[in-house]
Amino acid sequence: MGIEVTGVVGLLILIADVWAIINVFQSGAGTGNKVIWTVLILLLPVIGLILWLLAGPRGAASTV
After folding, report:
1. Residues 39, 11: Cα–Cα separation, whole Å
2. pLDDT tens readout for residues 26-57
3. Contact in structure between 38 and 21 (CB atoms under 8 Å)
């Protein structure tokens, strides 16, 4: 039972991290900031995701 729960939780964290990384790349932040956020999310999946949700770049890049 523990393996199944861990697998589901791990899958949810992976999905949330991929979603966060996609949003980082779609943001209007500079390249350096995008790299820092991506590395932080990859190295610290749960903590990086929480930090990104609280303090990460907001909004999509403007095309105008």
Report:
1. 19
2. 888 889 989 999 999 999 888 988 888 888 76
3. yes
Number of domains in the chain: 1
Residue 63 forms part of a structural domain: no
pTM: 0.74
Please count the CA atoms within 13 angstroms of the CA of 26 that sit on its side-chain side: 9
- Domain range for residue 38? 2-55
Q: According to the 3-state scheme, what is the secondary structure of the chain?
A: CHHHHHHHHHHHHHHHHHHHHHHHHHECCCHHHHHHHHHHHHHCHHHHHHHHHHHCCCCECCCC
Weakest mean pLDDT among 4-8, 21-25, 30-34: 4-8
